[in-house]
Amino acid sequence: MKKWLGSVVAFVIVLIIAGCGNEKTNGDNNNKETIRVTTTTGQVADLVKNIGGDKVEVVSLMGPGVDPHLYQASQGDIKKLDQADIIFYNGLHLEGKMDEIFEKMSEDKAVIAIADSVPEEKLLSADDGSESYDPHVWFDIEAWIYGIEAVKQELIKLSPEQEEVFTENATSYKKDLEEMHQYAIDQIQSIPAESRVLVTAHDAFKYFGNAYGLEVMGLQGLSTDSEYGLKDVQSLVDTLVERNIKAVFVESSISEKSINAVVEGAKEKNHQVVIGGELFSDAMGEEGTEEGTYIGMFKHNVDTIVNSLK
Ligand SMILES: [Zn+2]
């Protein structure tokens, strides 16, 4: 009797081991079918979630209100990057303090910059005397759409049996983004031509302005890693007065201090400027809210701008 039980147990153990062996392995992810993805910004996380669906488990390092230009990875973040099967980030030095970590991580897994999939002719230069590009590519939906194909291809490499699902998701998400692109074009065009000027705290919106027909002025440079100066405030105030611009905008990931200085400066020159609302620039909204998704965040920005400038 005991001997019989023993062989059943042995048989079951053999089955379990055989089962494990058959399972697809993604890096050291032996027990799960999902691909473990770690991303930097919310925009990148949302892109991967839309294409991977329930076949991916996405951990995003940078939540709402977090400024990627200044972000430094914690020990906990390194662990999350280490445990991932694949890492997606924005690139073009948006996550300027993490470049070294990405290089190190790329020794044993794919580390993919979404911006690298955008054709060079779609990129805008940083205009800071260097030869680098402006990293805020997600604000031109046509450029960001290139990321869909890149994510899809990488996920298929890790999980070829899910090719059909990833392809379907990618096609449907691309359609959603194309619709939002057209919405943004139509809405911005409803603002009178002379009022199509977007003044914000830092230069995150050049792609947005370029794609949707707004002149863009930022108080700070491309990276928030530079203090704004009095001269910048003054020249921006002069422009507001000269062009009779009614509203300026604050950003969720930047302190309001700089833009408040502009509003005050205009007041001193008897020009009334209001803060038109908060725009999401480098970070998205809270998870679970509409603004916590890329499309929702984009719509919020378009509607906020149109309501204040129209
Ligand atoms: Zn930025």
Automatic annotation (TrEMBL):
<dbReference type="InterPro" id="IPR050492">
    <property type="entry name" value="Bact_metal-bind_prot9"/>
</dbReference>
<dbReference type="InterPro" id="IPR006129">
    <property type="entry name" value="AdhesinB"/>
</dbReference>
<protein>
    <submittedName>
        <fullName>Manganese/zinc/iron transport system substrate-binding protein</fullName>
    </submittedName>
</protein>
<keyword id="KW-0813">Transport</keyword>
<dbReference type="Pfam" id="PF01297">
    <property type="entry name" value="ZnuA"/>
</dbReference>
<dbReference type="InterPro" id="IPR006127">
    <property type="entry name" value="ZnuA-like"/>
</dbReference>
<comment type="similarity">
    <text>Belongs to the bacterial solute-binding protein 9 family.</text>
</comment>
<keyword id="KW-0479">Metal-binding</keyword>
<keyword id="KW-0732">Signal</keyword>
<dbReference type="InterPro" id="IPR006128">
    <property type="entry name" value="Lipoprotein_PsaA-like"/>
</dbReference>
